[in-house]
Amino acid sequence: MLEEDRIKIYSEEYVDGIIEYNISSEEIEQFDTTAMNIIDNKYAVIYYSAEKVKKEITSLIGYSIIPKLFGLVDMTSLDELGVVKIQNIPYLGLRGQDILLGFVDTGIDYTNPLFRNSDNSTRIVSIWDQSIPNTKATEDTFFYGTEYSRKQINEALKMKNPYSIVPSKDEIGHGTTLAGLAGGNRMTESDFSGVLPAAEFVVVKLKPAKRALKEYFRVPEEAIAYQENDIMFGLRYLFNAARKLKKPIAICIGLGSNQGSHDGREALADSIARLSNQVGTCITAAGGNEGNSGHHYYGEIDKTKGFNTVELKVGEKDTGFTMELWGNTPGTYSIDILSPTGQYIPRIPARLNEHREVKFLFENTIINIDFLLVESQSGDQLILMRFKNVAPGIWRFNVYSGIISSGFHIWLPMRNFISDETFFLNPNTYTTITNPGNALYAITVTPYDPVNQSLYNFASRGYSRTDYVKPEMAAPGVNVYSPQPGNTFAPQSGSSIAAALTTGVTGMLLEWGIVRGNDRGMDTSQAKKYLVRGVKRNPNLTYPNREWGYGILDIYGTFMSLRGEDI
């Protein structure tokens, strides 16, 4: 990649697009591929003028090409997980020897003692900080960001000002928390230990999403958001690092989004699926905290009326946002709109790749509507609505279907991208797993409270839009004693907390299976099956179910099941 092209990776004058570059030459000609940055053998990123974003790029180049925006899905007990029991068995004692823990998140506080050895050297193999530009970046870091090696980190730790050597910081703290829970060193003075205190770390700090993309999706400027393509690059970096070191890696994804088809067929989900099938790789994803947010609606057409009425309450704080309607095949859908002051927009027929800009006189509101009858990745219909200067109050949408109706879903943005004042008046709490938690092969976890054995109040619920079992299991995620930047601790809750602890547990399986030779072909799918064998279940519930998946994670139960005992 030429140096003038690398500038486009960071420049706000260009926006990223995700393409499948191995498609036919006729299709690829519609894109400017002179600055193409390859992720893997299927996907690549192109960079096009941000001026196109001000136009209707959904209709021009397709919804699937636009990187979706992901946010943090939340702002313990090892006994509960069965970890302590396993580590106290002399023959097992799985503490992460020769295991890598990988994170694509907000970075890591590398100065924290949690991530050091007893001789004060670092346990971090490398940090790829995408947010620090580097004109000399090589293909190892996909021509952007700055990579810091173990050697550089160790040199920094000896300095009075370590950031003069390695300036990478976790200003938000989310990545530090997850890494500490999965593999922090035991700290007796704080009575804290991560799941795998002997493991090493590979860390990706994501660069913030570009302003033009946030504006297009109406995401607030102050919201923490990351681009789908940067996450994909990050996952590939972790995988490549593990292959170079010839070590297994357990990867944690503590990010989420309500954008996309929620069926595991988006570009990021596809990348996760292909990496998950690689031996020595386990990927765990947070299920999200959208269960009671009121951000999901499911409806079927009332045959007596010929439509279904959706009521949306918009709060004062939300001047702009997006809303996605996904129709299940083979149904096709169209809408009409009634504003809070009573202005009525008659039924807008669904036509192939049609764009409409609807203006409301008294509300001063503009809604850009894109109809994609056959969205390229899912094959299902998408109606993308982008609200600008949206007036507060009750908005009503009548949803109509063609001859065949097979149900439809509507999602508002996830928490942190929209306030709690905007929600559906008759929401559906199910099918609220955030992406990439719907990725078919990832291990998706939901948080529960080990004190009272209840599901976290905000926990997202399954299944996927195509009724694939998500989440697969529950893990502790309520008031978990968690590390923070600056060597402090505080109780935290959320699905990413559960995902971090589960990541540590999958690392135990990788150590037992690959490092110790008990199952040298272990990948994410195999690890998932081992974990499902050992879950704890409530005798009053039927499994799998939409709240708990197959049950509560218990690694001790997994190993007991391998003995063939009735547990």
UniProtKB/TrEMBL annotation:
Belongs to the peptidase S8 family. This is Subtilase family protein. One of its GO terms (biological process) is proteolysis. It comes from Anaeromicropila populeti. One of its GO terms (molecular function) is serine-type endopeptidase activity. The keyword Cell division does not apply. Residues 96-293, 428-551 form the Peptidase S8/S53 domain. CDD domains: Peptidases_S8_CspA-like. PROSITE patterns: SUBTILASE. The active site is at D105, H174, S496. Keywords: Hydrolase, Protease, Serine protease. InterPro entries: Pep_S8_CspA-like (IPR034045), Pept_S8A_subtilisin_clostridia (IPR017310), Peptidase_S8/S53_dom (IPR000209), Peptidase_S8/S53_dom_sf (IPR036852), Peptidase_S8/S53_subtilisin (IPR051048), Peptidase_S8_subtilisin-rel (IPR015500). Pfam families: Peptidase_S8 (PF00082).
